[in-house]
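Archive record
______________

***
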Amino acid sequence: MRHWKFASVPARHCRGSDDAMRLLITRPSEDADAFAKLLRARGHVPVVAPTMDVRLHDGPEIALTNVQAVLATSANGIRALARRTKHRSIPVYAVGPQTAEAAKSAGFKAVHNSEGDSTALVEFVAERADSVKGSLFHAAGAETAGRLRQGLQAKGFTVESEVLYDAVPLSTLPDAAKQALQIGALDGVLLFSPRSAKTFATLTVEAELLGACAALEAFCISAATAAALTPLTFARVAVAGVPNQEGMLALLPAAGT
């Protein structure tokens, strides 16, 4: 895994409209590394410092008997499911583009993208699936196991759910984040969920670096994510217009223009 080498990150300077932004990515490693490539392609400088560790659960083969489709609310859910089933012809309803791409990369043949969040996914599935044609299977994480199921059950669907992974918060702020905050080597921080925002805020306060965020911009995937940053304060907080990776990229200026 290649991360940004901290020693080569200069202290922050006054940024013009054509400058690269130094951006802290707090999401788990595999997703962070993929997003870092997108940032570099747009002329920005990523600093990868995951604040959560994803642990995929081992277990027996998941048969998916009498299941008409899989529900996927994260790329991690797809990765975890792909390890435990050989079925690739079953349709997948994905919450957004990144999850859909993970499903395609894992070999699933029929992937449908709701282009939104879990609420949008409920409506998307209800419009396209038939409640009498079999159950739905949610490849869930420990923090997402109930919400989607409840929404679809209210619309008459039978939803099976199994927790296939955990996202475990780290106990201390990663060194890359701590050092970058200490010397002012960042322009902003990217936050992809309320839970990761809360974890970042907690670890930053515990590291006694609360004041280091005051000059930074916070780019948040949702209003709930922005709200979870309390008690941190930022020079500016921006919320994505759509709650997915593309929405986050749209918040950032293009470097070199």
User: Anything to note?
Assistant: Residues 1-14 have pLDDT under 50 and may be disordered. Residues 29-41 form the longest helix (13 residues). The chain has two domains: 6-51+171-250, 55-168. The chain has nine helices and eleven strands.
